[in-house]
Structures are given as structure tokens and as C-alpha cells.
Amino acid sequence: MVKGFSFSAVEAGVKKPGRLDLGLIFSEKPAAAAGFFTTNAVQAAPVLLSRPKLASGRLQAVIVNSGNANACTGPKGMADAEKMAGLAARGLKIDPGLVAVCSTGVIGRPLPLDRITAAAPRLIEELSPDGLGSLARAIMTTDKVPKIATVELDLAGRPAGLVGVAKGSGMIHPMLEPAAQDEARGLPQATMLVFLMTDAPVAPFALREALSDALPASFHSITVDGDTSTNDSLIIMANGAAGGPVIEDFGSPGGSAFYGAVGRVCRDLALQLVADADGGTKVVTLLAKGAGSEMEADMAVMAVALSPLCKTAFFGADPNWGRILVAAGSSGARVETDKVEISFDGVTVFAQGLPADQRTLAAAEEVLKKPAFKVTIDLKAGDFEREFITSDLSLDYVRINSKYPA
Amino acid sequence: MVKGFSFSAVEAGVKKPGRLDLGLIFSEKPAAAAGFFTTNAVQAAPVLLSRPKLASGRLQAVIVNSGNANACTGPKGMADAEKMAGLAARGLKIDPGLVAVCSTGVIGRPLPLDRITAAAPRLIEELSPDGLGSLARAIMTTDKVPKIATVELDLAGRPAGLVGVAKGSGMIHPMLEPAAQDEARGLPQATMLVFLMTDAPVAPFALREALSDALPASFHSITVDGDTSTNDSLIIMANGAAGGPVIEDFGSPGGSAFYGAVGRVCRDLALQLVADADGGTKVVTLLAKGAGSEMEADMAVMAVALSPLCKTAFFGADPNWGRILVAAGSSGARVETDKVEISFDGVTVFAQGLPADQRTLAAAEEVLKKPAFKVTIDLKAGDFEREFITSDLSLDYVRINSKYPA
């Protein structure tokens, strides 16, 4: 569905036997590209290697492994990341400067480069336009399901496609900044890996701008555990194989359709990440509205999104508006108890300083048993609002993360 | 051990049958007093009622219940808190203005005042100098053990005592401000209740100052879950029954001994709170040192103290320095991977950009199996440091908080 791209995945032995752990994305022709990377002060070798490549606006391939983050691995880690790029470049007969490298997994262990080297020829052989599903599985760590989103585009009568693939599922709270240093920092934080591929013809500037526009309502509005990874990477490639005039910006013919498609794919993948959060059983959309300022809306919604007491209550389907109020009240936002309204999918459980009656609370409990619901906290202190999407904190979250599975 | 104070506790039926849930502290004579209360924007009725009383610097009694926080209960909640004070005042034949009220438990349910009223006469009858142990049990919610700390004082040859009693054990991240509004706000946040009683003669100013001095290294340096309660209250009373000249400030005869004793009792109780954290199996002392500024030391240590990934690793005795580095690295503090050193009780697991060898990591794992250990994160970026004490995040934390026990 996206012409000119092929994908592959093999079992290299980085993870336990029986699981795909090495993947490749290849564009027949060098593609326009943009990348956003973690703002964590501690950055993995593949991030340090790939960031300047993406800043150039051109890319032809991405080689990616799971099971090992190649983070905090010193000079050897940097050399290993470069060797990974070299393996792909030699196999594909392209410039290593056009190969990005991504890794996700355990921090601080040397990459088993011998196994990756041994697997590289198969990775090249198995490249196929139909390989996206395998690639999506190869980048999984504690993820339970592969994550793919697609949009078909109509660019002034000319069909094109946009596909995205992503992995989570712990250490998720993406805060990304563009590879190019000429743009403002986002808020930042996850190991999230996201790859978007389109055959639409798009200039690097438009790719970066479309991602910038898409981030606030997608990856910058989700959290699993509030921890930001050393390896978060979001890469988009546009190879123009669909033909037609190049989309230079939002105002170009097809620009608004393309920007909209990037927004939809990013939002779709972001929701899939929360749905597959470590141990997660609920996708909880939080809306702080009526805040006295933009920052207060952020503080109030974030305090609830990260509160272990709110998140365990969501897990237990306990309509515990008190914990939500406590979190918002200690966030630093202006909160007046008598004004605040809290509702679950429109069922108002707290208003005018008092909780709803038992029957209403029972209805709210039914809402919280659903796999996805919305919590609205109306501070009635102003006109600012912020949405944030969080997972619940379950027994399985603790089980999964009290011993990281190899 | 503290002359002129008596204590009592009864089963009023606020909690489930079979558990003490109503307590009383009484000083034979009106005492000098000081109080610090939650900085949450949402404040429970007993906090709103007691704060101005403590600002006056005088108090004679505290009536306290567990099982119901009397928070978010509207005008009826305020009236109920006043009635609680009145019950104690009438029974004790003292001015209601000298009676503070504290509550802890479920938020948003009306206080069962009829049961408290029915139990009040027994509460007065059972007052005894030996009742502190019962009182300590009566204020427990999800606490597993009562928490008491005592110091014997030698005030220029004159013996005096200081005793403290406290309860946790969830929604713990105390951030308190003094009842008097003429002092700076602390950082602020728990339902923590702490009562300190001394028979030393101390002026209200010195009480407030001694608590202010004690807070940074005690209640303001601990967290369980990062959530700050609507009900946090810290009250100290000094009735002077030990005799001697009044301690007006640190420089007064006996001042330094008294301030030191307050510091020790607060630190002792704060550590007991973390040791009895909801589901907690470890007391983890975190030290961020070598930070580039005071704020960066705070940010780095707090990021680790609140990180679900670090806290689940502590639970699993996993010496996962990577998660610690990730949390510090995304905290906003200046962190250079090649400079940071991370150690567990002196066993250095990460330095010069690389992890220690397997044998050292195995030694670190043994450290993490202990019930208490210290994690040092040396950023080597400056001269600032901050200690913070946190619990681990266990399966039982989730079990306890996914359904709040009545």
C-alpha cells in the first residue's frame, strides 16, 4: 500500500529464542525524512548516531533491534550502532549515512553484534513489500500485540498511502524533540519507537512540520508510567513513489490531506500504545478543563495521569473522585473545592463541593468497568484545557516490571 | 513520661467493628502549640477548623477519628467538625477554641456523628497518662503498626519528655505549611497525622520554629506515592508541666536540646511512616549529590523517588541502575552519562558511562534484598545534594489501593 518500501524481520538471537528481534525498513530510492528523538539527558548510542542523519532530511533505511537498548554502553556502544548501520548499508549497497539505527530493550548490556552480523544477510534477503507485520512484531519488547495504523490518501486524484508502526509498552511518556536543532523543545519523555512511511512526495520541512503538529494530540499526550526512555525515536520517510508534485508545506496541494493523515496515524498509534501498556487493563482519557492557565491545565491533568492512587482506583473500577480531586488539588493549579466538577463519561460524581448520591456513584462504577472511558475535571477557574491519556496501574504492571523479562 | 498529658481511644464504629477509631489528647492546662497543615488546595473540614486555632499558639486538646476524612463534605462537614470539637470541649469542660480536630479515612462521606457522639463520654472517661499506645492505634487506617517515638530531655538538669505519635500509610508525600500565615510556604503534600507532646516549657514561636527546622529532613523528605492528602496535620503541644524557664527560641537555655529532640522525633516518625508504607517492603534512602543547583538536586532525587519503574525494581531487588539513570536524566537536572556514578550502599554499579561487572551487580542485588538501603546518584555536576526517602511499589500496594478497605 506504500509503494517503493519493503520490510523484513528475522530472529537474530538478541531476545529469547523463538522471537523476531531484528528488523529492516528499506526505501528503493533515498527518501525525504524527519525524526524526533528523546529529550532525556541520557541518550542511547543509536539515538546519538541517528539524530544527525535525520537532521539532513534524507534517509533510505532503518535497521532496528529489540531486546537490547544499546544504551549506557560507552564508546563500544557507539561503534556497535555504527556497525549495525554498516551491515544494512553493505547489504543494501547504499550510503551508511542514509541508514538510521534504532534499539529497544535492556539498558547497559553490550549489543550481541556477532549475532546481529550473522543474521544480517537473511534480513536483506527477506525484504518484502508485505513485511510490515513481521517488522511490527520484531520491535516488540513487553508489548502483547503489534501496532500498525494506515491511511489511504487522495492527493488531488492521485492515490498514496501512509503507514505507521509502533512499539511500547513500558517507560512510556514520550517527550520528543526534532533532530534539527532549529525548533523549540517539546515538553519531553518513553522507549517508544515509531516509524511512518509514505509514498506521497513530501519535502523534509513538511514532514517535520506535520509531525510537530501531530505530537501534541498524540505521543505528547500519553503516559504509561511517566518515565522517559533513553531511546525514544519517531521517524518518518516519504519516498515520492506515488508521484505528483512535492508537498512543501500545509498550503501545498494535498498538504492539508497529508498533515491530517499524519495526525490521524500518530493519534491511532498513541492510543494503541496506551491500550497495550505494561499490565494495562484500561485506556483512560483525562480532560482537565476550565483551568486558570495553560500551565495549570497541564499540571492538573498530569498530576492525575501520574498518580498511583488514581491509577490503582482505575484498575479497581473504583469511582474514587476523591483521589482525582486530591491529585488536582496538590498539582499547583488553582482548585476551589466548591467549584470543581468531576465526571466519568458524563456521569457527574462530584459537584458543588459534594459527591453524587449512591445510585449515581454506582452508575459511575459501571463506567469504570469499561476498557476505555473519559474522566473530565472541570476546574471552573478559566478557559484552558488539556487532554491526556493514561493507563491504569495493575498487579501485572508490578509483576512485569519488578523483574524485567529478558 | 510527659507530665500533664492524658490520652484515650475507643471504638466508635466509624471503622469496621473491632477497631479503635476515635482518640483524644488532653493537656491538664492549656498548652503552647503550633500546627502545620496540608498545602493541598482541597482541604478537609477538620483542617479548615483547626488551622486558625493553631495560629493562636494555644491548644488544650485534640479529638481525632480514623475511618472517615470528613473531606469534601460541604457545610455539613464543617458543622460536624465543629460538633466534634464541641463534644470534647463539653466533656473536658474547656473552651472549644482550644480543641483541634483531625480526621483520616475515606473522602466524601458524611461523618457518622451520631456514633461519635455516643462514644464521646467513654472517650473522656478513659483518659489516662498511659493511653498513648491506644491513641496510636486509633488513628491507623491502612497502617499495619502503631508509630510512636520518644525522647527524654535534660533541660539544664531538669528532666522533660517529648513523645510523638503518627499514622500513614498511603497518600503520603507531606508538604505542610504553618497554621500562621506569616511564614513562607513549604513545597507542599499526605494523610499523615502527627501529634507531638512535651512537658517542656516552650513558647509557640519556638515550637513553630523547631518544627520548621525539623521538616526538611523528616516529613518533607519522604514519599510513598507522591499524592498529598487533604488532611495532613502536624500538631505540637507544650504544657510546661516539667517546670523551668520557658524556651523562647533556639538560643534559650535548653533550646538547642529541645530543637534537636523535635528533629529526632520527627525523623524517627518519618522513617516509621515509610517503613509502614502501603504494601511497602523496603525503605529506600535516595541521595542525589553533585547536582548543578539545589533545584536540580531536588528534581533528580524526586524523579527517582516517584518513578514506578525504579520503585518496582526496588520491590523486585533488581539493581536496575538504568531506570535510575533514566529517571534522573529526564528530570530536568543536568546529567552527563559519562560522569554519573550510581551506587547501592556503596557498591558502585554504574560509573564512567558503563555498568559494573556481573560480580559487582550480583553484590548490589544482595544489597537490594535488605529491608533498608541507600542509593547514591552522584551527578558530578556541582555541589548540591538532596536526600529523599521512598518506599517500593509492590503487588500489595496495588491490592490495597485498587479497592480502599472500609
Protein described:
Two copies of one chain form a homodimer. Chain A is of the alpha+beta class and 406 residues long. Chain A has two domains: 5-275, L-amino peptidase D-ALA esterase/amidase; 283-402, Ubiquitin-like (UB roll). The first copy, chain A, is built from eleven helices and 16 strands. In chain A, the strands form two sheets. In chain A, strands 1, 2, 3, 4, 5, 6, 7, 8 and 10 form a nine-stranded mixed β-sheet that branches. A seven-stranded mixed β-sheet of chain A has the order 9-16-11-15-12-13-14, sandwiched between helices. The model of chain A is unreliable at 181-190 (pLDDT under 50). At the A-B interface, α8, α9, β14 and α11 of A face α8, α9, β14 and α11 of B.
